[in-house]
Structure formats: structure tokens, C-alpha cells
Amino acid sequence: MIDFLKRLLGTPQGGLGLVIVLLVFLAVVIGPMVAPHDPEQMSILARYKPPSASYWLGTDQYGRDIFSRLLIGSRATVVMAVLATLAGTLVGALVGTASAFVGGRVDEFIMRTVDAVMSIPSLLFALLVVTLLGSSTINALVAVAIAFAPGMARITRSVALLVRKQDYVSAAIARGESSAFIIRREMLPNVIAPIVVETTIRISFAVMLFATLSFLGLGAQPPAAEWGLMIAEARQYMHLSAYILIWPSVAIAITTIGFNLLGDGLRDALNPRT
């Protein structure tokens, strides 16, 4: 573990990405406790205030503190993105590993189905799912998870095909172990490295996808402090104060960059020979 952390921190992208991601999760955990103002408190006299000692990032069109809303909104955006990515990863990893183990016509059918679903862009597919299920944060989570599962299945299968040929899998088959046991205990643990890297990178896409759904009115609903929703509400007031649009955009950009850098660092740390 220590050697792994040394390799991760030894790369510029890994070290910087880890710092950014840790700061983001710190905001998620302690954000509500350290927020200087009530994120829902409105004040007509405090509208469009620039950054100051009282309002670190200024105020929005309703006089609400932007910094407090960003801290609270990190839970609505980042946590939901992580949960959706993990759910999609779990489903995709199980499907991809099972497909590689079974092989034959079943594998062909599953992969052709996956290819058909992957031909639909993730955003469009998520929009279709949310349109069918209805506009809400939970439905947006389900939509993102479903949109990510096929890609994870394809990636997992490509690695699992190599694992399927290993001697320990053949030995498990010879012992008469069940297919579920072999997939769960013999194959999945040995395809975890590329899954971890891909999951970390996909979290950044999930953050943007969640923000996009909320921006379009299909995710979080007012008065929720969600970053994409904050941008959507700020569009018509940006000529009065650019801060209400800039800060949530910066939060999304920094979070996305952080997870991408961490994914690159994990790739190098988990594959030291490269």
C-alpha cells in the first residue's frame, strides 16, 4: 500500500489529482458544517453582491451566499455522480466478466447488445431514461448508471478474456466450482485494476452529466443547491453579476479535472511497468 501511494504521488497528475479530489470530498463531508450562511436564506438587500469578507464568493439573484450554496451543492453533484458511477461500474463489471466466462453465442449476444446501446451517446441515453422515469435526482442517478454500464461491460470483458485463460480459472472449473463462484472469486478480483482507473475517470463525466441534466431541468429541482441548476438559474442574471455563473462553472471544472488527473495517476501507479 505504501509503495502504491509512493507511485501515485510520484506522478504530477496523480499527486495533484489526489489533492483536488480530497478537497472535493472534504467539502462534501464538512461543507454543511462550515458553510458561513444558510444556503436558502434570501435577502433582497444583498442581491448581486461581489466577493467580500461577508460573502466570500458574492451573492446570487436572491441574495443567497454563493460559497455556502457551492458547499451544500457538492453533495448533490459529487455524491450522486460517485454513486451513479459505482452502480454502473458494478453492473457493467458483472455483465462483462460473466460474458467473458460463458463465451460462445451468449457472449456474442451480450456484446452485440452492449454495442447497440453504446452507439447512443451517454447524454442522449440519459435524457431518454430521465424522460421515461421523470425529472428527479434519483431518476438522474439511475439514468447515469444505466448509461455507464455498457461501456464498463465492454472494458471489463476485454480484460476478463485474458483472465479466463489463466490456470487458476481452469483449476476452479476442474474442481467443479459454480460459475457464480468463479466469476465472483476468481475473475473479478483480477480485473479490478482497469476497472478502478476507468471508474475514477468516469466520475468526472458523471459530474458533468449530472450538471447537464440539472441544467436542462431534468435532475435536481429548485431550490436545490446543485451546481448545474445554479448555472441554469444564473443565465438570465449574468449581465447583472457574472459571479453567479462563474463560480459553479469553476467548481464543476475543477472537480472534473481532479478526477481525470487522479485516473491518469492511478493508471500509472497500478501499472508500474509502463
Defining traits:
274 residues; mainly alpha; MetI-like fold; 73% helix; 0% strand
Task: Tell me about this structure.
It is a single chain. The protein has one domain (2-270): MetI-like (MetI-like fold, Orthogonal Bundle). The chain is built from 11 helices and no strands. The chain has helices at 2-9, 12-34, 66-102, 104-118, 122-133, 137-164, 167-174, 179-187, 192-215, 227-234, 243-270. The protein is elongated. The model has no long low-confidence stretch (mean pLDDT 87).
Give the helix/strand class. mainly alpha
Order of helices and strands: HHHHHHHHHHH
The percentage helix is over 70%
Strand content: under 5%
> What's the main sheet like?
none
* Total helical elements: 11
Number of strands: 0
- Overall residue-averaged pLDDT value: 87
CA gyration radius, whole angstroms: 22 Å
Looking at CATH, the homologous superfamily is: MetI-like
Low-confidence stretches: none
CATH C-level class is: Mainly Alpha
- Specify the CATH architecture: Orthogonal Bundle
Rough outline: elongated
Distance between the termini: 19 Å
Number of domains: 1
CATH T-level fold name: MetI-like fold
